[in-house]
Amino acid sequence: MAKDGIAQYNSTQVHPFFISNSRYSCFRNYIGAIDGTHIKACVLENEKARFTRHKRYPTQILAICDFDMRFTYIMVSYEGINHDSKILKDCLSESTLNFPTIPPGKYYLTLAL
Question: pTM here?
């Protein structure tokens, strides 16, 4: 399987809801959320062990969504045994994967990667 990145658009603006609502002022510098998940995919029989681990799903993705629930970045085709932090590290260090540039002072919400 090849590593493929899909960049739909680069959202670098803070959502108006967070700007206008003082109750959520702690989110004023966040431009989206990032997380990984496992998906079902067809894998050759002789490679299933390499790709299957968590929840018996063979492929893992890392995705970024803005606060309008639109995907701004998706990295697919990682073996299901990889940790989210490894995929994120690869995305940040490999320029060919087109990970969106994070503007200074802006952040993504995430679980502990």
Answer: 0.71
Q: Where are the strands (E) in 12-96, listed by range?
A: 30-39, 59-65, 71-79
CA dihedral for 29, 63, 3, 113, sign (positive or negative) = positive
CB 78 within 8 A of CB 61: yes
Residue 55 region by backbone torsions, left for phi larger than 0, else alpha for psi between -120 and 50, else beta:
left
Burial, 40: exposed, middle or buried (Cβ in 10 Å; 0-12, 13-18, 19+)?
Answer: exposed
Q: What is the pLDDT of residues 47-102, one digit of tens each?
A: 766 666 555 655 678 888 888 888 888 887 666 566 777 788 888 888 888 888 88
